[in-house]
């Protein structure tokens, strides 16, 4: 298992727990219980994880860790190891050994806690050996995890330390730099193989039959696609299998869509040494973020043990062990494991409730969603007390747009009147970084009459608190789609991301729902999927989920079902069962309807793939044969059904046709339905010139309907031409396009730079372009001049340089579009470590400011002292200098061997500048050869009427000219036969003019 390096589900009643005796007198006392299902112990009295199965004395043992974290603790609290034992997996009678060993009592050299995943094997000498990861009490290693080895004559102990120190660590038997946990062991005759590792690093080492003497040196394993942690080695019929927790995440991954989830994948080899070949996945992600396999054969059946969060009160750090069968495909070479079917199979929750979001299709503006988040969490009806990223939908990428949205779509029109949303944040509103509650948001519904989005009528308000569900009620509307649009929180220049743990949509409640009468054929187990629900003068066909039925003979019975969104209780239907052969006298053809469902757009377009349901009704109540075709293609015919669904995809215009034939052979007239799809958002681009933004947009299918823009987070306005700045300040322009199908592009931004031609005073840092020698991936160089001085900044509000290798010197730099007269600066450092550690982020030893003189950086003059405080701004005044670049060079603190990183929260630079002085002077520079020597000729031409004082500067000397009316010319001797490329400058009335020149070699 791993310790997650990032920031409780509701309890459930566990059925089938037949008997649990009174609690044992001591925590370590074994006790027996019966529970034929998963998790093995499901009542929440004890959470177990990291299963390691062993067959001994015709018994199946499953050794586990013990999760003891609280409901909202996001860390592994594991202080001991235990085990389950059974002689009959199907019967579900288990003996539980809750506390077989603790790290600090078993190994005198280990600390308490961190009792992570271990494995017990039977050694060649007949004794039992337990390989256990622990943390060393005293170690000079960077990572103190080590693997200890305990021994016992019995599978349940007592256990003793076999070595008196680590078997494997970063120091023994040879050095390594990985985290040494998750051991798995293969005993093959007199040979012993140990495999271990995590965080994508997997090693192996052979040992002698004494279990402790290494053979050779440790080696790395490759070929395991997506390997993350939790290896498990076993052999079957001469083939070696290595299962592991995989984490190759992404929307098209066969493993997992989210980084925080794991699948169980595996590879095979013909020998324990490898090489290994990846063979695919065997277990899909479970309900906990981590996953850990243990695979073994017992009494002729192969099993996989793993853990989930499915016990009562369970969670990511309150896991419980489960067991399921492994089946094999022996037609392949080598044989492959089939996909494991987790039991019990998840069933739809048919509890009556007003929420209907769980049955909606979800679409979001940031598809594909960043892999740390999981879009399914939006409507899974799970809200955790302290969620991890896959427990929410989020949008953080480090460069966040000003607006995002979430949309729900239902196949049938639904009557809705409320919303409950649960926001998550790690930053306050107004910071423009991290994840914050939106500045504002609103709910819109798809108006079926106008085929347009409209704001829900009379909303009670749109609260943005991040402490529980935020409620909004509104007048009831009938729709197939609803969306929430979020305006991201901003500091005026950058935007925070948005995250939502859960979004519920509440259905309007009818006064009652009538009990329907239904007709089915014998052998038919599916009842009609909708039932009529009356809302005043409007009747809707609302989805209903019926209890299972048996229809093995004609007759009548009653069944209960849950109507989607109806919270008052279940409805009861009377079901009449008929014989399918009763067709005498049937001469009436069935009626057929084609109903599309998808994300409906405007003008008859759909913004997604479309499902067309061909549903038929026969006057005798029987099932039919329905034939369908798309765009005149092959006909698909389905027998003995009441409906069939046709999938239509691809941008463009399509046609679906269908017919229905009843049991008596009566055929309906052909039905036809046009389907127009434009699922591609329009694309807009921008250009900035003369402090104005021009926007262009294209859409290849339905065409562009409109382009909108907003300035600095203001109201959206229809674009009709260039967007010019209204003043001299810097502005951010957001823009987006909508096509004729209603696809709304995620807003983009363009920046109108500040007009620097006028006088400048005060802090000019925000109008500079910041750069740095290095920036850590979780920090931001733009934090330097975001004009925010936050008391407790998040990592994205800091410029920092932490990395594994830290330099002695780092620098930050501001560039302006023209030279500015600067008079001073101030910056505030940030720290998380003390000076002298050589690690973390510490206040620096010192720093200095340098300005660009046209060819090189020079120290500013007149500074008395440079402070290094991380609690207050360190202010520096200097002799005024006119320049377009200013750099702060920072000397990191050291322990004598390594350097700490440096970090700055804000850097202000102050100006007292008269504005741009336009001078009628042009400067040219050209290298020349005279008698084999190089010279640099510089000329400044004054085209104005007034005489000007001009100073020429080059790397080879300077020359001042007074009262120049035409030209100031000087040829500077290089004193060499070659001159490199460079820049000459002319200073006129405080304005610096540059003239670049090329290299020249004189022969």
UniProtKB/TrEMBL annotation:
Pfam family, one: Glyco_hydro_43
MF terms (GO), sorted A to Z: hydrolase activity, hydrolyzing O-glycosyl compounds
UniProt site (Important for catalytic activity, responsible for pKa modulation of the active site Glu and correct orientation of both the proton donor and substrate): 182
InterPro entries referenced in this protein's UniProt entry, alphabetically: Glyco_hydro_43, Glyco_hydro_beta-prop_sf, Glycosyl_Hydrlase_43_Enz, Ig-like_fold, Ig-like_OmpL47-like
Swiss-Prot/TrEMBL GO biological process terms: xylan catabolic process
Alphabetical keyword list: Carbohydrate metabolism, Glycosidase, Hydrolase, Polysaccharide degradation, Signal, Xylan degradation
Coiled coil: none
Source superkingdom: Bacteria
Keyword Transmembrane: no
UniProt keyword Hydrolase, yes or no: yes
NCBIfam families assigned to the protein according to its UniProt record, in alphabetical order: barrel_OmpL47
Assigned protein family: Belongs to the glycosyl hydrolase 43 family.
Protein name in the entry: Ig-like protein group 4
Annotated source species: Paractinoplanes tereljensis
């Amino acid at each position: 298992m791993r310790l997650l390096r990032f920031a409780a589900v509701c309890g459930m009643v566990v059925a089938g727990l037949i008997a649990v005796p009174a609690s044992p007198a001591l925590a370590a006392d074994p006790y027996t219980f019966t529970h034929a299902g998963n998790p093995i112990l499901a009542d929440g009295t004890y959470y177990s994880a990291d299963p390691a199965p062993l067959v001994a004395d015709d018994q199946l043992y499953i050794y586990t860790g013990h999760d003891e974290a609280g409901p909202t603790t996001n860390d592994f609290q594991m202080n001991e190891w235990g085990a389950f034992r059974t002689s009959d997996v199907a019967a579900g009678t288990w003996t539980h050994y809750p506390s077989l060993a603790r790290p600090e009592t078993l190994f005198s050299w280990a600390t308490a806690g961190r009792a992570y995943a271990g494995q017990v094997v039977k050694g060649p000498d007949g004794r039992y050996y337990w390989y256990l990861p622990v943390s060393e009490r005293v170690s000079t290693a960077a990572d103190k995890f080590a693997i200890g080895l305990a021994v016992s004559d019995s599978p349940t102990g007592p256990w003793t330390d076999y070595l008196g120190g680590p078997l494997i660590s970063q120091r023994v038997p040879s050095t390594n730099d990985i985290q040494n946990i998750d051991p798995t062991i293969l005993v093959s005759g007199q040979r012993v193989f140990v495999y271990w590792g995590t965080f994508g690093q997997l090693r192996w080492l052979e040992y002698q039959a004494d279990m402790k003497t290494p053979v050779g040196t440790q080696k790395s394993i490759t070929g395991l696609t997506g390997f993350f942690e939790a290896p498990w080695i076993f052999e079957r019929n001469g083939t070696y299998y290595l299962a592991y927790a995989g984490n190759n995440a992404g929307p098209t991954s066969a493993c997992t869509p989210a980084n925080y989830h794991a699948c169980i994948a595996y590879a095979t080899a013909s020998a324990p040494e490898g090489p290994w070949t990846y063979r695919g996945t065997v277990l899909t992600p479970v309900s906990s973020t981590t996953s850990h396999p243990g695979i073994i054969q017992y009494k002729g059946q192969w099993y996989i043990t793993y853990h989930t969060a499915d016990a009562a009160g369970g969670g990511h750090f309150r896991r419980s062990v489960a067991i399921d069968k492994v089946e094999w495909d022996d037609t392949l070479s080598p044989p492959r494991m089939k996909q494991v079917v987790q039991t019990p199979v998840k069933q739809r929750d048919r509890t009556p409730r007003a929420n209907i979001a769980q049955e909606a299709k979800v679409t979001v503006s940031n598809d594909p969603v960043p892999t740390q988040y999981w879009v399914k969490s939006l409507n899974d009806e799970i809200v955790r007390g302290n969620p991890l990223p896959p427990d929410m939908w989020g949008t953080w990428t480090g460069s966040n747009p000003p607006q995002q949205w979430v949309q729900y779509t239902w196949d049938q029109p639904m009557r809705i009147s409320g919303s409950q949303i649960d926001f998550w944040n790690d930053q306050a509103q107004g910071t423009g970084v991290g994840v914050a509650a939106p500045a504002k948001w609103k709910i819109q519904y798809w108006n079926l009459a106008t085929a347009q989005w409209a704001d829900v009528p009379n909303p009670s308000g749109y609260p943005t608190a991040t402490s529980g569900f935020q409620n909004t009620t509104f007048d009831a509307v009938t729709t197939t789609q609803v969306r929430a649009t979020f305006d991201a929180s901003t500091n005026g220049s950058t935007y925070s991301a948005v995250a939502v743990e859960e979004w519920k949509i509440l259905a309007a409640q009818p006064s009652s729902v009538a009990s329907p009468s239904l007709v089915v054929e014998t052998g038919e187990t599916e009842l009609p999927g909708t039932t009529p629900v009356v809302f005043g003068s409007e009747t809707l066909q609302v989805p209903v989920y019926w209890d299972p039925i048996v229809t093995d003979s004609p007759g009548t019975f009653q069944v209960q079902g849950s109507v989607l969104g109806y919270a008052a209780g279940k409805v009861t239907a009377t079901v009449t069962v008929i014989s399918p052969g009763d067709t005498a006298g049937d001469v009436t053809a069935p009626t057929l309807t084609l109903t599309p469902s998808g994300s409906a757009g405007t003008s008859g377009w759909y913004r997604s793939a479309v499902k067309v349901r061909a549903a038929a009704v026969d006057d005798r109540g029987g099932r039919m044969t329905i034939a369908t075709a798309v765009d005149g293609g092959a006909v698909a015919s389905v027998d003995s059904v009441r409906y069939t669904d046709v999938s239509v995809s691809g941008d463009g215009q399509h046609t679906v046709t269908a017919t229905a034939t009843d049991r008596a052979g009566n055929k309906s007239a052909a039905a036809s339905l046009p389907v127009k799809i434009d699922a591609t958002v329009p694309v807009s681009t921008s250009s900035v010139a003369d402090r104005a933004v021009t926007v262009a947009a294209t859409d290849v299918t339905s065409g562009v309907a409109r382009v909108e823009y907003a300035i600095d987070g203001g109201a959206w306005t229809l674009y009709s031409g260039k967007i010019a700045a209204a003043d001299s300040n810097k502005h951010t322009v957001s823009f987006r396009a909508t096509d004729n199908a209603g696809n709304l592009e995620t807003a983009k931004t363009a920046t109108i730079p500040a007009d620097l031609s006028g006088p400048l005073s005060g802090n000019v840092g925000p109008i500079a372009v910041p750069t740095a020698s290095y920036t850590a991936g979780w920090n931001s160089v733009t934090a330097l001049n975001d004009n925010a001085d936050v008391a407790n900044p998040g990592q994205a509000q800091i410029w920092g340089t932490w990395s594994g290798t830290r330099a002695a010197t780092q620098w930050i730099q501001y560039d302006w579009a023209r030279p500015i007269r600067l008079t001073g600066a101030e910056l505030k450092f940030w720290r998380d470590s003390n000076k002298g550690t050589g690690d973390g982020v510490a206040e620096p030893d010192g720093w200095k400011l340098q300005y660009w003189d046209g060819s090189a950086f020079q120290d500013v003059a007149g500074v008395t002292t440079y402070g290094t405080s991380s609690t207050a701004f360190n202010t520096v005044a200097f002799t005024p200098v006119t320049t377009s670049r200013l750099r702060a060079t920072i000397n990191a603190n050291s322990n004598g061997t390594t350097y700490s990183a440096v970090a700055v929260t804000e850097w202000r630079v102050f100006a007292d500048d008269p504005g741009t002085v336009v001078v009628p002077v042009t400067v040219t520079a050209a290298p020349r050869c005279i008698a084999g020597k190089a010279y640099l000729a510089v000329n400044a031409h004054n085209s104005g009427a007034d005489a000007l004082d001009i100073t020429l500067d080059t790397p080879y000397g300077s020359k001042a000219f007074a009262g120049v009316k035409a030209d100031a010319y000087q040829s500077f001797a290089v004193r060499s036969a070659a001159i490199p490329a460079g820049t000459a400058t002319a200073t006129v009335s405080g304005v610096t003019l540059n003239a670049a020149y090329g290299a020249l070699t004189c022969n």
